[in-house]
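User: Thanks for the earlier help. One more: Elongation factor G. Can you show the sequence and predicted structure together?

Assistant: Of course, both are below.
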Amino acid sequence: MGRPTGRSDLPAAPSPASPQDIRNVVLVGPGGAGKTALFDALVAARVVGHRPGDDEHVRTTTLTVASIETDGLTLNLLDTPGYPDFVGELRAGLRAADAAVFVVSGADEIDRPVALLWRECAAVGMPRAVAVTHLDQPRADFAATVETCRRTFGDARATHWPVLDGGAVTGVVGLLTAAAGEHEDARAALIESVIEESEDATLLDRYLEGEDLDTDALRADLRTAIAQGSFFPILPVSPPTGAGVEELLGLITQAFPNPTVHPLPAVTTPAGGAITGVTCDPDAPLVAEVVRTTSDPYVGRLSLVRVFSGTLRVDETVHVSGHLGDFVGHEVEGHPAHDDDERVGPLAAPFCDTHRPRGTAIAGEIALVSKLTRAETSDTLSSTERPAVVAPWVLPEPQLPVAIRAASKSDEDKLGGALQRLVAEDVTMRMEHSSETDQVVLWTMGQAHVDSVIEQLAERYGVTVTAEPYRTALRETFIQKCSVQGRHVKQSGGHGQYAVCSLEIEPLPRGSGFEFVDKVVGGAVPRQFIPSVEKGARLQLEKGVLTGHPVVDVRVTLVDGKAHSVDSSDVAFQTAAAMALKEAANETTVALLEPIDRVSVTTADEYLGAVMSDLRGRRGHVVGTEPGEDPGWTVVNAEVPQSELSRYPIDLRSVSHGTGSFVREPLRHDLLPADKAKELLKG
């Protein structure tokens, strides 16, 4: 989704006659497996003149889509980032697609993080094929990769075998063809798997009796099992030589399901009521979802839309619903709840860095819509007669905070608008402005995500920012009971200012907040000024008494005071109370409190010890462990100071070898250790 290049050599946009003529396929896999190279090879096989990027090692950070024609069908091919920081783009691609090609390197290990990606696909019921790349590298071993895939992914078998010549993959052999004789063991294993998936109960007996089974019937059973997501074919591919590309395209068109087969997401009314009968039918009421938004300097806002039902038409008025906060349980920055009617702008078929205009997009299609000013990522487009809301895909919670500051005054003037736009486009980023620390904080998925955001600010909006250490918001509290007098007496002509109040200050248990007690007797402080003392105390406690952090868990008791019949006032007693609190504050009476988070870390069992040791090194208290949802995984529950978690997403990825994830929530404030408090007090 980028600048239209004005290329005239591209064929016209595909125009499928029905949803049965569409295939929506997403490429998924770990970073460095060769997804983008395979994406370019698949596109180039059907679009003459398509030129892949020069550097196959450039990290993909965004979702890329190309709509092409193959074998009389429209193939919408989506390339997703493999780096975990951009899992939001991956999940958007999974929502838009109906099947997946899982790309793995034949020269690298299929480790736990790769298995986690596979689970991402399995969680949404995605039929999958496995494409094995990098078979021309010295460490590559296709047979070993096939066995590892079978152990890791389940019922996965090779359907083709690579042909190697001088270390290069020059072709592939189908295991159900006569040419597969030299790979008899792999062929037999494939046939046995197909028989297990077949609905023909006689196949197994006939096979065991030595009967030559009909190859066409086996292929039909194989295609059915693939479409149902119960069998996962493994194909060798080589983007540099093109080997396996045609075979993969053939599998996509013949075995992957069309949009009428893949289950639709849940759909409700904007108020949460049920909507039934939503089908992948171009003649049904419109239900579509914005899976990605971006801003283009040439055409304005671009929305990548998956049409689930009905037909999207240029200049048609649609209802735009956004209720993301209702599904995640809290308001999401840049995504306030809204219901609007808006006219659909120009439609286009996406094609990498350009797009081709079209007039409609039917159920099952993926299209680009220009200038939808009221629609954000995850919003629903529906008919005005039947407004609808599509339940959004599962959103990861950003856990890495980074504080940024504008490099200049001109950058500062543009920063707010630029950040609002980026946060609205990226549902995996959250922004907050902390008045306590005076920092603009972006909550992100990881360091690569941070780098991408800073780069976008510079390139798209001309805003230069610098990152600075993230500061946690501390609290002050009194740790000793003390008595103090606040005296505010001034005379400067006319009415003066006179207020004296005697206060007792004592600590309260954690979480108690602030209490004010009136014990004045004999009218030493007139009744009308007692609320003024309380107000002055509250205001000063909010400002802090020693380091500028708010004071919590304290009881202030007014025990005595003095007033003047003329010079006393509300302001005078507020000032006297504030002076008393500041007078009472010193390093022996006041301590600092730091925020503590409740943290739940999920990790593979083999890295459990390293994760627990790392948590203890962060001054964390491990409360306990429990089994994860899947065998081989454990959840560690701990209480950890918030300041120790500022880089935890990056460090956890290291100690858990990419398998760890965590969630956290504020728990309480506890005393900051004396050595750390001393450093702050000195500063």
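User: Great, one quick takeaway?

Assistant: The chain is about 25% helix and 30% strand.
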